[in-house]
Design a protein that fits this description.
Layout: H1 16-24, H2 34-37, E1 41-42, E2 50-54, E3 59-64, H3 65-81, E4 96-107, H4 111-124, E5 127-132, E6 136-144, E7 146-147, E8 150-151, H5 154-166, H6 175-188, H7 198-209, E9 224-229, H8 230-245, H9 256-267
Antiparallel strand pairs: 1-2, 2-3, 3-9, 4-6, 5-6, 7-8
Helix pairs in contact: 3-6, 3-7, 4-5, 8-9
């Protein structure tokens, strides 16, 4: 029978999970930087979802294959459609004529935005005709941006004008363009369940290393998570072996994946 805790104290007996977490917490790298990420070596795919990697700084990390390829696809799309200046390329075909113009009612406080930022909107592919009106203006949108074969709308134009006003002309890409590119990148990326051989897994890691924002996907999820500093893990394995050699019990009875990993390192 487990002895009862002493009266008058709020402390409880730590669980095995708590003890294990305390032992392994110092082995986890606090951050994985780009320099350490370069030259990472891909290991065998796990569960048709993840690619473990050994980084050049000795960190064992895991790459989410969908999030990683989504980032690669997104930046590939951006290079194809958007120039280095942040505006659509001349040969990107970013303007589509509408068979039926889309009406857009601009309120009195919105109408000046069309004059102030109309040139920027036209550069992205919107075209329109103003029909006048009181307390604002009525606009017929005749052309819309065509991004990766997907058409934006007159509503996207309104959002862009407001965003330009909020940023005093520094909005960059319209939110509609970002939405389309993110969606296309997601749908065209490697999915969970797709099998990756050794060469394709390494290719994915190499491509991810070359992206501008290699650690997040198009929707902000992490592409890569550091798991353990292998040099610290080897020291922990050596310490466990020393404890066993002198007949002392292990600090924590290790089970599961972490225990098997330590045993594998001790045998190597």
């Amino acid at each position: 029978m487990m002895p009862a805790a002493a009266s008058g104290t709020s402390e409880s007996v730590p669980s095995l999970e708590t003890l294990e977490a305390a032992v392994f917490a110092p082995l986890r790298p606090k951050v994985l930087d780009r320099e350490g990420f370069y030259g990472a070596r891909a290991l065998a795919q796990v569960d048709l979802k993840f690619v473990p990697i050994v980084c050049s700084n000795g960190v064992l990390a895991v790459v989410d294959q969908h999030a990683a390829d989504e980032r690669v696809c997104l930046e590939r799309l951006r290079r194809k459609l958007i120039g280095d200046d942040g505006w659509p390329r001349d040969d990107a075909g970013a303007c589509m004529a509408l068979t039926t113009p889309q009406p857009l009612r601009l309120a009195a406080d919105e109408a000046p935005l069309l004059d102030a930022y109309g040139a920027a909107a036209a550069a992205w592919g919107w075209r329109w005709a103003v029909r006048g009106g009181t307390n604002g203006c009525d606009v017929d949108v005749t052309h819309v941006p065509l991004i990766a074969h997907r058409a934006l709308t007159s509503t996207d134009l309104r959002v862009y004008l407001h965003r330009m006003a909020e940023t005093r002309g520094g909005a960059g890409m319209p939110e509609g363009v970002t939405r389309v590119l993110n969606s296309v990148a997601c749908r065209s990326a490697i999915m969970f369940g797709d099998e990756l051989g050794p060469s394709r897994a390494q290719q994915l890691v190499d491509e991810l290393q070359q992206t501008q924002m290699c650690f997040v996907c198009a929707h902000g999820r992490p592409t890569t998570v550091p798991l353990v500093d292998l040099s610290l893990l080897r020291k922990a394995a050596a310490a466990q072996a020393a404890q066993r050699a002198v007949g002392r019990p292990e600090v924590v009875p290790l089970g599961g994946l972490k225990g098997r990993l330590l045993e594998a390192l001790q045998r190597s």
